[in-house]
Amino acid sequence: MSEILIGMAPEMAPHLDKAGVALLSGMLLGQDEGVIAAMEKEGLRFLERFEDGRWVSLVLTR
Question: Fewest Cβ atoms closer than 10 Å to its Cβ: which of 11, 22, 34, 57?
């Protein structure tokens, strides 16, 4: 799933409103760093990480 989210970063970032929040989920623990890097490269800002066992969700904003 992380590969899909990384690939979506250039298309997703421009569609997020300046006050918008993106909640990304479905990543396994350890895959989140690549997703965060891809989203930050496109201008999003990492806010928070939630872990549930081996699953990770991320909160990002513009």
Answer: 11
